[in-house]
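Why do we care about 3D structure at all? Because function follows from shape, and shape follows, mostly, from sequence. That is the central idea of this module. The next example makes it concrete: a single protein chain, its amino acid sequence, and then its structure expressed as C-alpha cells.
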Amino acid sequence: MQVYLNGSYIDSRDAKISVGDRGFVFGDGIYEVTRVVNGNFFREKEHLTRLKEGLAGLKIEADISMIENIPEISRELIKRNNHLKGEAAVYLQITRGTAWPRTHNFPDPAVKPTLYLSSSPFSPHTELHKTGVDAISVADIRWTRCNLKTINLLPNTLAKQQAKEAGVDSAIMIRDGVVTESPNANIFGVKDGVLYTFPATNYILSGITRQTVLEIADAQGIPVSFSPIRQEEIFNLDELFFSGTTTDIQPVILVDGKPIGTGKPGSVVKTIQQEYNKLLYK
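And the structure:
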C-alpha cells in the first residue's frame, strides 16, 4: 500500500518519521478522514475547511501550498492504491513537525510540519444501519477543546475499548449530566418529531456528517433543537442515532441494556438515512 509522506509516495512499510516529531512525542497535530465513493470525495471542501480551522486552533504554521496540494495528493494516492472503484477512506494528518530538543513550547523558529496521507478500502456498516446498535454510557473525560480534531485520542480510545469489553458497539459520553457525543461520532436524539443535538461548542467536534444531517433536517422540515440531552432524558427519547464519516447514520436502539423508544430504528432516522445515502452515492 502506498502512502504519502512529506513530498513522497512510498510503500507504507518504508514510511518513517523522526522520534523527534511532535506528533509522536506530544500528539501535537490534527487529522481528517474523508469518504471516497467511486473516486468521488464526499464533502471534501468541508473537510479542508475544518482542517484549516484545526491548524489555526493549534497554531501550526503550514504553507498555503501544502493545503492546496492535498486534493491532488489524495487523488493520486487512491489511484496508486486502486481505490478508484467502490468505497474508500483517505486519512490525512499534519503535525507540527520535528524539533530538537524536546520542549513543551513550540519550536522557535517554527519547523516544517509533517504531512501524511493514506488510503484504505472501506465497507459501510450496512447491516447495523438497518438493525441499530447498542451502547453504554461513559464519563466524557476529554479535554475542553473537543472542537479541534486533534490526534490526541486516548480518552476516545479508552471509551471505545470500554464499550468493546462490555460487549457493545459504542459508547454515549456524558459530561456534567448531559450527552455530548460518542468516541467517534456525533449524537442526535428524537422526541416528538424534534431533532435534538448538542450545540456546536468547544465540547464537541461538529462533524461534517453532523452538518449534513442538519441540512437534511432543514430540507425535510424536521425541527431541530440545539439543546443537550440530559442523562435522565435518554430513555424518554423516541429515537437516538450516531452520525460520522465512517459511521454514516447509525441508529442506537439500546443504552446500558435498556431500549430507546420501541427498541428499533425509528421513522426519523430512516428518513435521514435515505436522504444521506442519496447525497453520498449520487
